[in-house]
Amino acid sequence: MAFSLKLAVAAALVVTLSVCMVEGYPSGAPVEACSAMFPNHRMNHENSSLPDERYSSQNLSTAPYLITAARQDNGKVQVSLGVTDAAQYYWEGFFLQARLQGTTAPVGRWEVLPTGTQTRDCPGGMKNALTHTSETKVRTLDATWTPPAAPANMTVVFRVTFVKGFETFWVGLESAPVTGVKAYVSATVPLKALTTVVFSTALMATVAAMF
Ligand SMILES: *[C@@H]1O[C@H](CO)[C@@H](O)[C@H](O)[C@H]1NC(C)=O
Ligand SMILES: *[C@@H]1O[C@H](CO)[C@@H](O)[C@H](O)[C@H]1NC(C)=O
Ligand SMILES: *[C@@H]1O[C@H](CO)[C@@H](O)[C@H](O)[C@H]1NC(C)=O
């Protein structure tokens, strides 16, 4: 085989290989992934009559990631994602949701977003999932989660898919359950101010009636 032909074959092979790597989510997980939280990373078969092969999740028991969650005094929950060894591990993509223990739909919402993140509106809510905006290597991330307005007292599990690379990802790693999370009712007019308004309105009505 002539050298130039070998080169052409090699070049064609490189192009074929890169074309074969399909369906990554470099700019964040889409709403289609809300339920399974599975990255649609596929390797095409050379035989087109066979179905594309989907890469599978790594074993969760060996995941090099940490998910911690702590209730705050203001009723929200601080969620921290990290790696077990910063010298070796990182993620290039992630998808984070809070779910009521034993259920499959995300609840609550993510606010005051960390750099390099964006929310998704999964079915049933708004801003109820958090994902990356680019394939930057990340080793630590803190996010704040606001509970939903019901139920009154809930047990919540934070569920994350971490993507280290196209072929290497962990689907649905969960935090320890966080119990005693209270329904979050957004700040309204303080009771004292409300009483004053009601009282002065009543007084005005009384005064008006006198004339
Ligand atoms: C492709 O796969 C189909 C189904 O297994 C098989 O019948 C066919 O022989 C394969 N073709 C080639 C070129 O390997
Ligand atoms: C994951 O790893 C654990 C511990 O090594 C093993 O017991 C378990 O069978 C593995 N699970 C799968 C799905 O391979
Ligand atoms: C909330 O639920 C937990 C169990 O998940 C229970 O231990 C706790 O007493 C409950 N708190 C209230 C105020 O009902």
From TrEMBL:
The keyword Signal applies. It holds the Pfam family Reeler. GO terms for cellular component: membrane. InterPro entries: Ferric-chelate_Red/DefProt (IPR051237), Reeler_dom (IPR002861), Reeler_sf (IPR042307). Keywords: Signal. PANTHER family: CYTOCHROME B561/FERRIC REDUCTASE TRANSMEMBRANE, REELIN DOMAIN-CONTAINING PROTEIN. This is Defense protein 3. It comes from Branchiostoma belcheri. The gene is LOC109462981.
